[in-house]
């Protein structure tokens, strides 16, 4: 391969480059900002370039859709052909490579299935608990009751439904009972990269291991940071070399990246106080020696929090920080929604990339969500994305619902049907129902006969109507278009949602016992509490390049009216640090 095609490798430091072109099975650990994502992206670019004539796939499994979209857009900006690159979450991998192509080998899936979302799951669980006369307490997990689990599973099986978690279990079952499936999938792959591997759960490791054992020429890369393992509560584990060697039946190399290209040394020194496996991190950033701002505010009252944050944003913008380099974070979405609204009112000239309460909730595995995404997003733009979504709609109708579609139905046909459906400016729901009816009729699908598809449609409409009622939303087209509009500006997101991202200025509020750590840890094992809380603080604070504004606001209370107090681990971390 001519070196000029690999020009992008010059953007890496020698260690990153060595890892990028390595042909070993590797566990790569590194501190925040050390270039894990950059190295992973460039490795995909490298593999795609040197094996451009091969169909074998280079897989990147990411924790979130946002992360995989980020990697794909970085690859596109490097002008890399994405044909032999696949990126997505482990659930998407299982659906695309295991469940859809091999559902006929599963008793549970062979007659068709639909994936239910949280809305339907909650409805079922509430109905079942009521029927079984179980009164659920605040925050109580209904699945802790075996009778609920039994009834719930029975109900899903009867109605040919599966939930999100079952995707993994059913994939695992398909692989463990059918060696040929593992072999077939293994023959398609060249490399598998698992980003944020510290958040991988046991079942996910087993799925990946069983594919690898059928073809040990696949190269596996596990990339992560154990200090950022914030999903331990839902089963995330960073397996060590010995465990991975034994599961994959191979010899993994362990390597690490050092140096942080993101933050000032001062920010690093601050967040290092929350490190679990202590190691010294040096700044390699151009900002290295800058002082920036690190403050901790325990005096602002919750009623004044929007004014306080608006003033910080204003000051940052005036000092030249661009909008998209400022981020406001909180531990819970319900804390963020009201702030987004008031910040927009207080700063009408500023754009926000903020959570909006919209009629349609993100649910990319639902065929009706995908139909609405095409109908309500701008039609002239992102033609390759729209084509991909149309392909996904066909795949769900064929594979999940087991429908027979006429031969002429392809991506272009689906797009044409959806685009041609009548728009009703004052009524997004009517526009949506027109669209579904047009598409189904032109694809010769009789919804009255397809009861499972019909049920999914009704559930989708019910959810939209419920959101409109609960949040008092408008039903005009603008309200629906807003669901899919690309957002730009000051980012407003949750602590977990900003993992992997970076901003010049991070403003974090809601740093209170009960929110971080959450109640289950406040009353649980003390050591566990300290570890989990420190990891979350580490993740949040390490997003900042230069400025960090931390706020434990006053005036918030428990449901019983007890005042919430500042997060203890943060108070201790700030004690001997020279704050501004
Ligand atoms: N060799 C390098 N030279 C210059 N900048 C770099 C280099 N490597 C990484 N960076 C920059 O450092 C920043 C952090 O990189 P990246 O996001 O890949 O880190 P990370 O290890 O994935 O961080 P985190 O663990 O927090 O997600 C990015 O802005 C990236 O472009």
UniProtKB/TrEMBL annotation:
Keyword DNA-binding: no
The EC number(s) this enzyme carries: 5.6.2.4
GO BP field: recombinational repair
Nucleotide-binding is among the record's keywords: yes
Catalyzed reaction equations: ATP + H2O = ADP + phosphate + H(+); Couples ATP hydrolysis with the unwinding of duplex DNA by translocating in the 3'-5' direction
Residues annotated as domain UvrD-like helicase ATP-binding: 9-264
GO MF annotation: an example: ATP hydrolysis activity
Family assignment from sequence similarity: Belongs to the helicase family. UvrD subfamily.
Protein name per its UniProtKB record: DNA 3'-5' helicase
Organism: Paenibacillus rhizosphaerae
Lineage: Bacteria, Bacillati, Bacillota, Bacilli, Bacillales
